[in-house]
Amino acid sequence: MRWYTLEPADSSVFSDAPVRLEFSTRFAAPPSRVWESLTSDESVAAWGRGVETVRWTSPRPFGVGTTREVTLALKAATVREEFFRWDEGRGYAFCARESNRPGLRRFAEDYQLSPAGTGTLFVWRVAIEAVPAAAPALRLLAPVVRAAFGQVVRDGARYFAHPH
Questions:
Q1: Which domain holds residue 143?
Q2: What was the pLDDT predicted at 147?
Q3: What is the pTM for the complete model shown?
């Protein structure tokens, strides 16, 4: 498998990337349960149809510098991620360092959890910057990309509505 290196990203990517998505929803589970799921061996693959597998490539305990490999549904792409923010029990942020598909310059995600009554306010930010040759296609596909990420949030709301 060929790997394409992406530029590193930090929290500034969430304000300056050409494509920035933000989703905010309430999960019917306490932050501790959502955090446990996010840091489990399956992570988002347990509840997001858009994610096929998550493989942590760093030993526990996790923190800044942790790495993992994520394969999207239908094997659309596999990315190698590195965490640059880790707030135990409250959220984390990571950037993709490599992808098996060309076209991305920078890609990052930020997950934030906060108590909301008996549930969790889940805020998810995604930042995407394509290489110049792929930028027009990304702009064109931005609504499709938004819908795909939005589906993961809806899947999460359904998953956390039931005890597991």
A1: 4-160
A2: 94
A3: 0.95
